[in-house]
Amino acid sequence: MRRGGQRIRSAPSTLEPPPLVPEPEPLDALPQREALRTEFEFELPRGYIDESGTLHRRGKMRLATARDELLPLRDIRVKENPAYLSVVLLGRVITELGTLGPANDQIVEKMFAADLAFLQDFYRQVNAEGHTRASVVCPHCEQPFDVELGGSRLGES
Length: 157
Fold this sequence. Notes:
The protein is α+β, with helices and mostly antiparallel strands. The protein is built from five helices and seven strands. The longest helix has 17 residues, at 113-129. 25% of the residues lie in helices and 24% in strands. It has one domain (39-148). The strands form three sheets. Strands 3-4-5 form a three-stranded antiparallel β-sheet. A two-stranded antiparallel sheet has the order 1-2. The radius of gyration is 28 Å and the shape is elongated. Residues 1-27 are annotated as: Disordered. This is Secreted protein.
């Protein structure tokens, strides 16, 4: 390169250029990731009674997708009453309810209020945290511990 008639030379480089691609870590050095759970078991506090009188308490709920949360917004019942959103949404993500198979919004709207409240909490826990454990504090000794929300009977952890 020339500047004002003078020739400027760069000093020879003694440093080696950094590698373009880092060396991969050995597979045994990588942290093992837990497989993503997409379906979670639950047990309703009261249970759904079908038309034949059969009680259904155990079920499974899958993780919600963006589509699951967006499609109910087009539903006329949700437009007229936004509180109906959770009924339609739960009807989409409950993959099993007793021997009935997948639930739908007609089943969810016939559930007892306690079961609907349980499923709403369960949905929030599964989709926000990715698991069904909740951290709580003992009211007597004030020690924190986790409880399992899904698949256990009321009062059990």
